[in-house]
Amino acid sequence: MKKTRRAILKSLATVAFLPAFASAQAAVPSIKLALIEGLSGGNANGGEAVYRNLVWAVERVNQRGGVRTREGRRPLELDRYDSKGQIEEAIAALHSAIDGGARIILQGNSSAVAAALIEAIERHNEREPDRRVVFLNYAAVDPSLTNEKCSFWHFRFDAHADMRMAALMSVLKEDAAVKSVYLINPDYSFGQSVQREAKRQLALRRPDIRIVGEELDPLLRIKDFAPYAAKIKASGADAVITGNFSNDLTLLVKAAREVGYDGRFYTFYGNALGAPAAMGDAGVGKVLAVAEWLPNVPAQQSADFYRAFRRRYPNPADDYVHMRLQLMIEALAQSIERAGTVDAVPLATALEQASVSFSGWIGRMRASDHQFQQPLVVGLMERQGTPGVPFDVEGSGYGFRVIRQFPPPKVEMPTTCKMVRPA
User: Residues in domain Leucine-binding protein (predicted)?
Assistant: First the structure.
């Protein structure tokens, strides 16, 4: 395979700390992690944001001496593979990563890609038991991935779409001003699941709310959302519920502002990647976002964590920090040490028992379906400096005031997974 197609780069997170392991490296190799992500194309900003978070997390593990294994202490090494957001490229990158020695695969910014990787990894692990891999998913939130498509080799560290929707609906339920909503989501498995779950939970929690419009838009292909925004405004909807992200969300909220729509946006990803700056004052008091963590969580440890990230990445444009990615790498380090190896079966067995705490935030892996259980928060967009908003987003002057916090049991949901474990 051509090197240009693989687009492999070794992480500075490893290079910076290899001298500390120099004497041991001859006998004990580093542990390769392969990030397979869209690092070019429509969601390149999301892929690069993930990469920055992973670099920081890997640096932290290596700064404290790497991880203990039976062979001795080993550093983590993060390699990146550009899937361009395409399934075929992601599968090719998977095989390249395995051939390059990676036994831990990281991906998340597409549920369709994640589903394809799960199937490919199942086939590979059955055919080549000596080169089995585990798959850590940090953002692909189609609920089916830990339900009917669950796999022993796959672990999800983000709350799935139904869990996120449950948190948003807990807030919307109390929003008496909302009498009608418009649903607009990306047209693939994730967006379709958001659409279905929004209708199901609205019927249960707010049967008085009318759904006045539904759209499924082509993922990362629309350049002009003005026609969509015009329909939303014409529908008279009091609020929009959307799982759109990256450029699709930014262009949608820009178009809504330009046509004069003044309803609320209940979003999965409205808290970053250009969306707050795009909305500007029009989003103040109107845009809500659900996340596993937000910078303005009212706790000193949380503020210290965020300031540490900003010291590592001082450019405001790089300001998209994911607590779940830090918890994921901490859980991986813990599990490697518990297993004493990166061999896939003992490592996966250890990951099933992972329970981590970091900067005041907690999370545990549920063994029955490999769905990580962690707190969720909902924030409301406000100007920086208003009460509860000491930090803004991406230098925009706008941040998210945390209006609700949900401990893990409040957003935990049942699973239909029938886990098949290796003999």
Answer: 30-379
Q: 246 and 187 share a domain?
A: yes
Per-residue pLDDT of 364-387, as tens digits, reads 999 999 999 999 999 999 999 999
Q: Are residues 17 and 84 in the same domain?
A: yes
Q: Residue 18 sits in which domain range?
A: 3-159+308-373
Structure tokens at 98: 């395995």
* CA-closest candidate to residue 109, choices 156, 53, 47: 47
Residue ranges in the chain modelled with pLDDT below 70: 1-27
Q: Is residue 296 part of a domain?
A: no
Its pTM stands at: 0.91
Is residue 298 domain-resident? no
Please give the torsion angle defined by the CA atoms of residues 382, 384, 388 and 393, in that order, rounded to the nearest 10 degrees: 80
Does one domain contain both 149 and 62? yes
pLDDT at 246: 78
Greatest Cα pair distance, the chain, in angstroms, is: 68
Instruction: Verify that 119 and 212 share a domain, yes or no.
Output: no
Contacts of 254 (CB under 8 A, 6+ apart): 225, 278, 279
CA distance 185 to 106: 25
Asked if residue 406 and residue 320 are part of one domain, the reply reads no
Note the residue count of the chain.
Answer: 423
176 and 270 part of one domain? yes
- Where do the DSSP E strands lie in 51-100? 67-69, 72-74, 76-82
Place of tokens 């850590």: 136
Residues 140 and 177 in one domain: no
- Tens of pLDDT, residues 310-365: 999 999 989 989 999 999 999 999 999 999 999 999 999 999 999 999 999 999 99
Q: Are strands 31-37 and 104-107 parallel, antiparallel or unpaired?
A: parallel
Closest Cα to residue 325, out of 188, 199, 157? 157
Verify that 246 and 383 share a domain, yes or no.
yes
